[in-house]
Amino acid sequence: MAEFTMELNDEQKEVRDWLHGFAADVIRPAAAEWDEREETPWPVIQEAAKVGIYSLDFYAQQYFDASGLGIPMAMEELFWGDAGIALSIVGTGLAAVGVLANGTEEQIGTWIPQMYGDANDVKVAAFCSSEPDAGSDVASMRTRAVYDEAKDEWVINGTKTWATNGGIANVHVVVAVVDPELGSKGHASFIIPPGTPGCSQGQKFKKHGIRASHTAEVVLDGVRVPGSCLLGGKEKLDERLARAREKAKQGGERVKNAAMATFEASRPAVGAMAVGTARAAYEVALDYATTRQQFGRPIIDNQGVAFQLADMRTQIDAARLLVWRASWMAINGKPFTAAEGSMSKLFASETAKKVTAQAIQILGGNGYTREYPVERMHRDAAIYTIFEGTSEIQRLVIARTLSGMPIR
Ligand SMILES: Cc1cc2nc3c(=O)[nH]c(=O)nc-3n(C[C@H](O)[C@H](O)[C@H](O)COP(=O)(O)OP(=O)(O)OC[C@H]3O[C@@H](n4cnc5c(N)ncnc54)[C@H](O)[C@@H]3O)c2cc1C
Protein backbone atom coordinates (compact mmCIF):
# COMPACT_ATOMS: atom_id res chain seq x y z
CA MET A 1 0.00 0.00 0.00
CA ALA A 2 1.30 3.46 -0.90
CA GLU A 3 1.98 5.81 2.03
CA PHE A 4 -0.42 8.71 2.25
CA THR A 5 1.39 11.81 1.09
CA MET A 6 0.49 15.42 0.43
CA GLU A 7 3.60 15.89 -1.70
CA LEU A 8 3.32 15.28 -5.44
CA ASN A 9 6.36 13.53 -6.90
CA ASP A 10 8.29 15.02 -9.84
CA GLU A 11 6.33 13.07 -12.43
CA GLN A 12 2.99 14.12 -10.92
CA LYS A 13 4.14 17.74 -10.78
CA GLU A 14 5.01 17.57 -14.46
CA VAL A 15 1.53 16.24 -15.31
CA ARG A 16 -0.09 18.86 -13.09
CA ASP A 17 1.83 21.68 -14.77
CA TRP A 18 0.96 20.33 -18.22
CA LEU A 19 -2.75 20.16 -17.30
CA HIS A 20 -2.60 23.59 -15.73
CA GLY A 21 -1.10 24.96 -18.95
CA PHE A 22 -3.96 23.46 -20.98
CA ALA A 23 -6.53 24.78 -18.50
CA ALA A 24 -4.99 28.28 -18.55
CA ASP A 25 -4.26 28.53 -22.28
CA VAL A 26 -7.13 26.62 -23.87
CA ILE A 27 -10.00 26.10 -21.39
CA ARG A 28 -10.18 29.39 -19.43
CA PRO A 29 -10.05 31.68 -22.51
CA ALA A 30 -12.94 29.73 -24.07
CA ALA A 31 -15.07 29.58 -20.92
CA ALA A 32 -17.24 32.70 -21.28
CA GLU A 33 -18.03 31.99 -24.93
CA TRP A 34 -19.22 28.40 -24.41
CA ASP A 35 -21.13 29.38 -21.27
CA GLU A 36 -23.09 31.91 -23.37
CA ARG A 37 -23.54 29.51 -26.27
CA GLU A 38 -24.75 26.71 -23.98
CA GLU A 39 -23.33 24.15 -26.40
CA THR A 40 -20.82 21.33 -26.19
CA PRO A 41 -17.39 22.84 -26.92
CA TRP A 42 -16.40 20.29 -29.58
CA PRO A 43 -13.27 22.22 -30.71
CA VAL A 44 -11.94 22.26 -27.14
CA ILE A 45 -12.62 18.54 -26.68
CA GLN A 46 -10.83 17.92 -29.96
CA GLU A 47 -7.87 20.01 -28.76
CA ALA A 48 -7.84 17.94 -25.54
CA ALA A 49 -7.90 14.75 -27.63
CA LYS A 50 -4.98 15.95 -29.76
CA VAL A 51 -2.75 16.51 -26.74
CA GLY A 52 -3.87 13.28 -25.04
CA ILE A 53 -6.05 14.70 -22.26
CA TYR A 54 -9.30 13.38 -23.78
CA SER A 55 -8.56 9.65 -23.77
CA LEU A 56 -9.10 6.59 -21.65
CA ASP A 57 -5.33 6.03 -21.48
CA PHE A 58 -4.83 9.35 -19.74
CA TYR A 59 -7.50 8.70 -17.10
CA ALA A 60 -6.40 5.10 -16.61
CA GLN A 61 -2.85 6.33 -15.94
CA GLN A 62 -4.08 8.81 -13.37
CA TYR A 63 -6.49 6.30 -11.86
CA PHE A 64 -3.89 3.61 -11.32
CA ASP A 65 -1.46 6.02 -9.66
CA ALA A 66 -1.05 4.24 -6.31
CA SER A 67 -0.79 7.51 -4.40
CA GLY A 68 -4.43 8.13 -5.31
CA LEU A 69 -3.56 11.72 -6.20
CA GLY A 70 -3.61 11.37 -10.01
CA ILE A 71 -7.37 11.79 -10.52
CA PRO A 72 -7.98 14.55 -7.94
CA MET A 73 -4.99 16.50 -9.21
CA ALA A 74 -6.22 16.21 -12.84
CA MET A 75 -9.81 17.14 -11.94
CA GLU A 76 -8.72 20.14 -9.88
CA GLU A 77 -6.62 21.57 -12.71
CA LEU A 78 -9.18 21.03 -15.49
CA PHE A 79 -12.08 22.40 -13.42
CA TRP A 80 -9.89 25.32 -12.34
CA GLY A 81 -9.95 26.19 -16.07
CA ASP A 82 -13.74 26.04 -16.35
CA ALA A 83 -16.29 23.64 -14.93
CA GLY A 84 -18.64 23.45 -17.94
CA ILE A 85 -15.88 22.78 -20.45
CA ALA A 86 -14.06 20.43 -18.09
CA LEU A 87 -17.24 18.39 -17.58
CA SER A 88 -17.56 18.13 -21.36
CA ILE A 89 -14.04 16.70 -21.37
CA VAL A 90 -14.41 14.30 -18.42
CA GLY A 91 -18.15 13.44 -18.72
CA THR A 92 -17.44 10.51 -21.00
CA GLY A 93 -15.41 9.04 -18.15
CA LEU A 94 -18.55 8.38 -16.09
CA ALA A 95 -19.90 6.08 -18.82
CA ALA A 96 -16.46 4.53 -19.33
CA VAL A 97 -16.20 3.77 -15.61
CA GLY A 98 -19.66 2.14 -15.79
CA VAL A 99 -18.29 -0.26 -18.42
CA LEU A 100 -14.94 -0.77 -16.69
CA ALA A 101 -16.68 -1.58 -13.40
CA ASN A 102 -19.29 -4.01 -14.75
CA GLY A 103 -18.26 -5.05 -18.26
CA THR A 104 -16.39 -8.05 -19.59
CA GLU A 105 -12.98 -7.60 -21.20
CA GLU A 106 -14.60 -7.89 -24.60
CA GLN A 107 -17.17 -5.21 -23.77
CA ILE A 108 -14.45 -2.92 -22.45
CA GLY A 109 -12.38 -3.42 -25.61
CA THR A 110 -15.36 -2.93 -27.93
CA TRP A 111 -17.19 0.02 -26.42
CA ILE A 112 -14.74 2.28 -24.63
CA PRO A 113 -12.83 3.23 -27.82
CA GLN A 114 -16.18 4.11 -29.43
CA MET A 115 -16.98 6.37 -26.48
CA TYR A 116 -13.95 8.57 -27.12
CA GLY A 117 -13.53 8.32 -30.91
CA ASP A 118 -10.19 9.76 -32.01
CA ALA A 119 -8.60 13.18 -32.29
CA ASN A 120 -9.94 13.69 -35.83
CA ASP A 121 -13.44 12.52 -34.98
CA VAL A 122 -14.09 12.91 -31.26
CA LYS A 123 -17.13 11.25 -29.70
CA VAL A 124 -18.68 11.46 -26.26
CA ALA A 125 -20.57 8.98 -24.08
CA ALA A 126 -23.38 9.27 -21.54
CA PHE A 127 -24.23 7.44 -18.33
CA CYS A 128 -28.00 7.41 -17.85
CA SER A 129 -29.32 6.43 -14.45
CA SER A 130 -31.54 9.31 -13.20
CA GLU A 131 -35.20 9.50 -14.14
CA PRO A 132 -37.89 12.13 -13.57
CA ASP A 133 -39.16 10.19 -10.53
CA ALA A 134 -35.90 8.54 -9.55
CA GLY A 135 -33.14 10.99 -8.60
CA SER A 136 -31.79 10.41 -5.09
CA ASP A 137 -34.22 7.51 -4.81
CA VAL A 138 -32.72 5.26 -7.46
CA ALA A 139 -34.84 2.32 -6.28
CA SER A 140 -37.87 4.08 -7.84
CA MET A 141 -36.40 3.62 -11.30
CA ARG A 142 -38.97 2.61 -13.94
CA THR A 143 -36.98 2.10 -17.13
CA ARG A 144 -37.54 -1.56 -17.85
CA ALA A 145 -35.37 -4.06 -19.71
CA VAL A 146 -37.04 -7.33 -20.72
CA TYR A 147 -35.15 -10.28 -22.19
CA ASP A 148 -36.42 -11.68 -25.50
CA GLU A 149 -34.93 -15.15 -25.31
CA ALA A 150 -35.93 -16.19 -28.82
CA LYS A 151 -33.86 -13.38 -30.34
CA ASP A 152 -31.27 -13.06 -27.56
CA GLU A 153 -32.13 -9.38 -27.33
CA TRP A 154 -33.06 -6.97 -24.55
CA VAL A 155 -36.00 -4.64 -25.09
CA ILE A 156 -35.69 -1.38 -23.17
CA ASN A 157 -38.40 1.21 -22.53
CA GLY A 158 -38.31 4.32 -20.36
CA THR A 159 -37.15 7.91 -20.04
CA LYS A 160 -33.87 8.97 -18.50
CA THR A 161 -33.25 12.52 -17.45
CA TRP A 162 -30.39 14.95 -16.67
CA ALA A 163 -27.97 12.77 -18.60
CA THR A 164 -24.66 14.51 -19.24
CA ASN A 165 -24.10 14.13 -23.01
CA GLY A 166 -27.53 12.44 -23.28
CA GLY A 167 -28.67 12.16 -26.88
CA ILE A 168 -25.41 13.48 -28.37
CA ALA A 169 -23.41 10.50 -27.13
CA ASN A 170 -22.07 7.90 -29.52
CA VAL A 171 -22.53 5.27 -26.81
CA HIS A 172 -25.10 5.46 -23.99
CA VAL A 173 -24.81 3.35 -20.86
CA VAL A 174 -28.31 2.88 -19.46
CA VAL A 175 -29.31 1.48 -16.08
CA ALA A 176 -32.66 -0.36 -16.21
CA VAL A 177 -34.86 -2.55 -14.05
CA VAL A 178 -34.64 -6.25 -14.86
CA ASP A 179 -36.44 -7.48 -11.73
CA PRO A 180 -38.88 -4.97 -10.18
CA GLU A 181 -39.27 -7.10 -7.02
CA LEU A 182 -35.68 -6.51 -5.98
CA GLY A 183 -35.53 -2.71 -5.82
CA SER A 184 -32.09 -1.38 -6.69
CA LYS A 185 -30.69 -4.94 -6.53
CA GLY A 186 -32.81 -5.71 -9.61
CA HIS A 187 -31.03 -3.18 -11.82
CA ALA A 188 -28.61 -3.90 -14.66
CA SER A 189 -26.58 -1.74 -17.04
CA PHE A 190 -26.77 -1.89 -20.83
CA ILE A 191 -24.80 -0.49 -23.71
CA ILE A 192 -26.89 1.29 -26.31
CA PRO A 193 -24.72 1.19 -29.45
CA PRO A 194 -24.45 4.16 -31.82
CA GLY A 195 -27.53 4.73 -34.00
CA THR A 196 -29.78 2.23 -32.20
CA PRO A 197 -33.41 2.81 -33.32
CA GLY A 198 -35.72 4.00 -30.53
CA CYS A 199 -32.99 5.80 -28.56
CA SER A 200 -33.35 9.57 -28.92
CA GLN A 201 -32.74 12.83 -27.16
CA GLY A 202 -35.71 14.36 -25.36
CA GLN A 203 -35.61 17.82 -23.84
CA LYS A 204 -32.23 19.55 -23.68
CA PHE A 205 -32.05 21.48 -20.41
CA LYS A 206 -31.18 25.16 -20.16
CA LYS A 207 -29.17 25.34 -16.98
CA HIS A 208 -28.07 27.75 -14.25
CA GLY A 209 -24.39 26.78 -14.58
CA ILE A 210 -21.95 24.37 -16.29
CA ARG A 211 -23.74 25.51 -19.43
CA ALA A 212 -21.03 24.25 -21.79
CA SER A 213 -21.91 20.75 -20.66
CA HIS A 214 -24.87 19.20 -22.48
CA THR A 215 -27.60 17.82 -20.21
CA ALA A 216 -30.71 16.18 -21.66
CA GLU A 217 -33.40 13.56 -21.43
CA VAL A 218 -32.86 10.27 -23.20
CA VAL A 219 -35.98 8.54 -24.48
CA LEU A 220 -35.86 4.76 -24.89
CA ASP A 221 -38.81 3.60 -26.95
CA GLY A 222 -38.79 -0.11 -27.75
CA VAL A 223 -34.99 -0.08 -27.93
CA ARG A 224 -33.63 -3.51 -28.87
CA VAL A 225 -30.03 -4.36 -28.10
CA PRO A 226 -28.23 -7.68 -28.54
CA GLY A 227 -27.71 -9.88 -25.47
CA SER A 228 -24.01 -8.98 -25.65
CA CYS A 229 -24.91 -5.39 -24.61
CA LEU A 230 -25.82 -6.45 -21.08
CA LEU A 231 -22.79 -5.37 -19.07
CA GLY A 232 -21.14 -8.35 -17.40
CA GLY A 233 -23.25 -10.87 -19.37
CA LYS A 234 -26.42 -12.86 -18.68
CA GLU A 235 -24.84 -15.62 -16.63
CA LYS A 236 -23.40 -13.18 -14.12
CA LEU A 237 -26.69 -11.28 -13.95
CA ASP A 238 -28.69 -14.46 -13.32
CA GLU A 239 -26.33 -15.45 -10.51
CA ARG A 240 -26.54 -12.00 -8.94
CA LEU A 241 -30.34 -11.94 -9.14
CA ALA A 242 -30.58 -15.44 -7.66
CA ARG A 243 -28.45 -14.35 -4.69
CA ALA A 244 -30.54 -11.20 -4.21
CA ARG A 245 -33.80 -13.22 -4.34
CA GLU A 246 -32.43 -15.65 -1.79
CA LYS A 247 -31.47 -12.83 0.57
CA ALA A 248 -34.84 -11.14 0.05
CA LYS A 249 -36.58 -14.43 0.89
CA GLN A 250 -34.59 -14.71 4.11
CA GLY A 251 -35.73 -11.14 4.77
CA GLY A 252 -32.18 -10.45 5.91
CA GLU A 253 -30.91 -7.65 3.79
CA ARG A 254 -32.11 -4.12 3.94
CA VAL A 255 -32.38 -3.02 0.32
CA LYS A 256 -29.92 -0.18 0.07
CA ASN A 257 -30.57 2.91 -1.96
CA ALA A 258 -28.14 2.52 -4.83
CA ALA A 259 -27.74 6.27 -5.30
CA MET A 260 -26.30 6.41 -1.81
CA ALA A 261 -23.81 3.60 -2.29
CA THR A 262 -22.85 3.24 -5.95
CA PHE A 263 -20.91 6.44 -6.28
CA GLU A 264 -19.13 6.35 -2.93
CA ALA A 265 -15.75 5.61 -4.57
CA SER A 266 -16.17 8.21 -7.32
CA ARG A 267 -17.26 10.99 -5.00
CA PRO A 268 -13.76 12.27 -4.17
CA ALA A 269 -13.34 13.02 -7.89
CA VAL A 270 -16.38 15.30 -7.76
CA GLY A 271 -14.92 16.87 -4.61
CA ALA A 272 -11.75 17.58 -6.58
CA MET A 273 -13.77 19.31 -9.32
CA ALA A 274 -15.30 21.53 -6.64
CA VAL A 275 -11.84 22.32 -5.23
CA GLY A 276 -10.78 23.42 -8.73
CA THR A 277 -13.71 25.83 -9.10
CA ALA A 278 -13.27 27.18 -5.56
CA ARG A 279 -9.54 27.74 -6.06
CA ALA A 280 -10.17 29.54 -9.35
CA ALA A 281 -12.63 31.96 -7.72
CA TYR A 282 -10.35 32.49 -4.71
CA GLU A 283 -7.41 33.39 -6.96
CA VAL A 284 -9.48 35.95 -8.88
CA ALA A 285 -10.70 37.44 -5.60
CA LEU A 286 -7.19 37.63 -4.08
CA ASP A 287 -5.85 39.34 -7.16
CA TYR A 288 -8.76 41.79 -7.26
CA ALA A 289 -8.51 42.57 -3.55
CA THR A 290 -4.84 43.49 -3.83
CA THR A 291 -5.36 45.80 -6.82
CA ARG A 292 -8.79 47.40 -6.26
CA GLN A 293 -8.39 50.71 -4.41
CA GLN A 294 -11.09 52.27 -2.25
CA PHE A 295 -10.59 54.92 0.42
CA GLY A 296 -7.05 55.37 -0.94
CA ARG A 297 -5.85 51.83 -0.23
CA PRO A 298 -6.26 48.31 -1.62
CA ILE A 299 -9.46 46.73 -0.31
CA ILE A 300 -7.40 43.81 1.11
CA ASP A 301 -6.03 46.32 3.65
CA ASN A 302 -9.38 45.93 5.43
CA GLN A 303 -9.64 42.97 7.76
CA GLY A 304 -13.25 42.52 6.58
CA VAL A 305 -11.90 41.56 3.16
CA ALA A 306 -8.59 39.96 4.17
CA PHE A 307 -10.24 37.65 6.71
CA GLN A 308 -12.72 36.46 4.11
CA LEU A 309 -9.78 35.51 1.88
CA ALA A 310 -8.09 33.77 4.82
CA ASP A 311 -11.25 31.72 5.43
CA MET A 312 -11.66 30.92 1.74
CA ARG A 313 -8.12 29.58 1.40
CA THR A 314 -8.36 27.62 4.66
CA GLN A 315 -11.56 25.91 3.53
CA ILE A 316 -10.15 25.12 0.08
CA ASP A 317 -7.06 23.51 1.59
CA ALA A 318 -9.19 21.55 4.07
CA ALA A 319 -11.41 20.35 1.22
CA ARG A 320 -8.38 19.21 -0.77
CA LEU A 321 -7.06 17.30 2.26
CA LEU A 322 -10.36 15.41 2.60
CA VAL A 323 -10.45 14.69 -1.15
CA TRP A 324 -6.87 13.44 -1.26
CA ARG A 325 -7.38 11.29 1.84
CA ALA A 326 -10.48 9.65 0.36
CA SER A 327 -8.79 9.16 -3.03
CA TRP A 328 -5.79 7.52 -1.38
CA MET A 329 -8.10 5.25 0.65
CA ALA A 330 -10.11 4.28 -2.43
CA ILE A 331 -7.14 3.28 -4.61
CA ASN A 332 -5.50 1.40 -1.74
CA GLY A 333 -8.64 -0.57 -0.95
CA LYS A 334 -9.15 0.94 2.49
CA PRO A 335 -12.85 0.76 3.29
CA PHE A 336 -14.69 4.02 3.90
CA THR A 337 -15.67 3.08 7.46
CA ALA A 338 -16.70 6.69 8.19
CA ALA A 339 -18.01 7.40 4.65
CA GLU A 340 -14.85 9.38 3.91
CA GLY A 341 -15.75 9.55 0.19
CA SER A 342 -19.03 11.26 0.98
CA MET A 343 -17.36 13.52 3.54
CA SER A 344 -14.94 14.78 0.92
CA LYS A 345 -17.66 15.46 -1.64
CA LEU A 346 -19.92 17.13 0.92
CA PHE A 347 -17.27 19.46 2.30
CA ALA A 348 -15.67 20.33 -1.04
CA SER A 349 -18.95 21.05 -2.82
CA GLU A 350 -20.32 23.20 0.01
CA THR A 351 -16.95 25.00 0.12
CA ALA A 352 -17.14 25.73 -3.63
CA LYS A 353 -20.59 27.27 -3.25
CA LYS A 354 -19.51 29.39 -0.28
CA VAL A 355 -16.15 30.49 -1.67
CA THR A 356 -17.52 31.49 -5.08
CA ALA A 357 -20.23 33.57 -3.36
CA GLN A 358 -17.56 35.27 -1.23
CA ALA A 359 -15.54 35.95 -4.38
CA ILE A 360 -18.51 37.80 -5.89
CA GLN A 361 -18.79 39.87 -2.70
CA ILE A 362 -15.10 40.78 -2.81
CA LEU A 363 -15.39 41.90 -6.45
CA GLY A 364 -18.45 44.02 -5.60
CA GLY A 365 -20.40 45.24 -8.64
CA ASN A 366 -17.81 43.76 -10.98
CA GLY A 367 -18.28 40.37 -9.36
CA TYR A 368 -21.96 40.48 -10.22
CA THR A 369 -21.31 41.02 -13.94
CA ARG A 370 -20.27 38.62 -16.67
CA GLU A 371 -17.21 40.80 -17.30
CA TYR A 372 -15.51 38.86 -14.51
CA PRO A 373 -15.48 35.06 -14.21
CA VAL A 374 -16.58 34.69 -10.58
CA GLU A 375 -20.25 35.12 -11.48
CA ARG A 376 -19.98 32.10 -13.81
CA MET A 377 -17.94 30.14 -11.26
CA HIS A 378 -20.65 30.69 -8.63
CA ARG A 379 -23.34 29.44 -11.02
CA ASP A 380 -21.15 26.46 -11.88
CA ALA A 381 -20.41 25.64 -8.23
CA ALA A 382 -24.10 25.03 -7.50
CA ILE A 383 -23.98 21.70 -9.35
CA TYR A 384 -21.51 20.10 -6.96
CA THR A 385 -24.04 19.94 -4.11
CA ILE A 386 -26.56 18.27 -6.45
CA PHE A 387 -25.11 15.67 -8.81
CA GLU A 388 -23.55 12.34 -7.80
CA GLY A 389 -25.63 12.54 -4.64
CA THR A 390 -26.93 15.80 -3.11
CA SER A 391 -25.38 17.22 0.06
CA GLU A 392 -28.35 15.90 2.03
CA ILE A 393 -27.76 12.39 0.67
CA GLN A 394 -24.05 12.66 1.57
CA ARG A 395 -25.06 13.58 5.13
CA LEU A 396 -27.42 10.60 5.21
CA VAL A 397 -24.64 8.26 4.05
CA ILE A 398 -22.21 9.67 6.63
CA ALA A 399 -24.74 9.60 9.47
CA ARG A 400 -25.89 6.05 8.67
CA THR A 401 -22.32 4.83 8.36
CA LEU A 402 -21.30 6.38 11.66
CA SER A 403 -24.36 5.30 13.60
CA GLY A 404 -25.45 2.11 11.87
CA MET A 405 -28.99 3.48 12.27
CA PRO A 406 -31.54 3.72 9.44
CA ILE A 407 -31.64 7.50 9.67
CA ARG A 408 -34.16 9.15 7.33
C1 LIG B 1 -26.25 19.19 -14.64
C2 LIG B 1 -26.62 17.82 -14.19
C3 LIG B 1 -25.95 16.72 -14.71
C4 LIG B 1 -26.31 15.44 -14.33
N1 LIG B 1 -25.71 14.36 -14.93
C5 LIG B 1 -26.21 13.12 -14.70
C6 LIG B 1 -25.74 12.00 -15.48
O1 LIG B 1 -24.85 12.13 -16.32
N2 LIG B 1 -26.32 10.80 -15.27
C7 LIG B 1 -27.32 10.61 -14.37
O2 LIG B 1 -27.80 9.49 -14.23
N3 LIG B 1 -27.78 11.64 -13.60
C8 LIG B 1 -27.26 12.89 -13.77
N4 LIG B 1 -27.74 13.96 -13.03
C9 LIG B 1 -28.80 13.74 -12.05
C10 LIG B 1 -28.36 13.97 -10.61
O3 LIG B 1 -27.54 12.93 -10.17
C11 LIG B 1 -29.64 14.14 -9.77
O4 LIG B 1 -30.16 15.43 -10.08
C12 LIG B 1 -29.37 14.02 -8.29
O5 LIG B 1 -29.08 12.70 -7.95
C13 LIG B 1 -30.55 14.49 -7.44
O6 LIG B 1 -31.75 13.91 -7.85
P1 LIG B 1 -33.05 14.84 -8.09
O7 LIG B 1 -32.61 15.98 -8.95
O8 LIG B 1 -34.16 14.00 -8.56
O9 LIG B 1 -33.39 15.45 -6.69
P2 LIG B 1 -34.38 14.78 -5.55
O10 LIG B 1 -33.91 13.40 -5.26
O11 LIG B 1 -35.77 15.00 -5.99
O12 LIG B 1 -34.04 15.73 -4.35
C14 LIG B 1 -34.63 17.03 -4.18
C15 LIG B 1 -34.19 17.57 -2.84
O13 LIG B 1 -34.65 16.70 -1.79
C16 LIG B 1 -33.56 16.26 -1.02
N5 LIG B 1 -33.76 14.89 -0.59
C17 LIG B 1 -34.18 13.82 -1.33
N6 LIG B 1 -34.23 12.71 -0.59
C18 LIG B 1 -33.81 13.07 0.65
C19 LIG B 1 -33.64 12.37 1.86
N7 LIG B 1 -33.86 11.05 1.95
N8 LIG B 1 -33.21 13.05 2.95
C20 LIG B 1 -32.94 14.38 2.88
N9 LIG B 1 -33.09 15.11 1.74
C21 LIG B 1 -33.51 14.45 0.66
C22 LIG B 1 -32.35 16.37 -1.93
O14 LIG B 1 -31.14 16.45 -1.22
C23 LIG B 1 -32.67 17.64 -2.71
O15 LIG B 1 -32.30 18.76 -1.96
C24 LIG B 1 -27.35 15.25 -13.37
C25 LIG B 1 -28.00 16.37 -12.83
C26 LIG B 1 -27.66 17.63 -13.24
C27 LIG B 1 -28.41 18.80 -12.67
TrEMBL record:
GO terms, molecular function: acyl-CoA dehydrogenase activity; flavin adenine dinucleotide binding
Keywords linked to the UniProt accession: FAD, Flavoprotein, Oxidoreductase
Boundaries of every Acyl-CoA dehydrogenase/oxidase C-terminal domain copy: 258-402
Acyl-CoA oxidase/dehydrogenase middle domain sequence ranges: 126-223
Keyword Oxidoreductase: yes
PROSITE patterns xrefs: ACYL_COA_DH_2
Pfam families, sorted: Acyl-CoA_dh_1, Acyl-CoA_dh_M, Acyl-CoA_dh_N
Cofactors (names): FAD
Residue ranges of domain Acyl-CoA dehydrogenase/oxidase N-terminal in the record: 9-115
Protein family: Belongs to the acyl-CoA dehydrogenase family.
Name under which the protein is recorded: Butyryl-CoA dehydrogenase
Organism encoding this protein: Streptomyces griseoflavus Tu4000
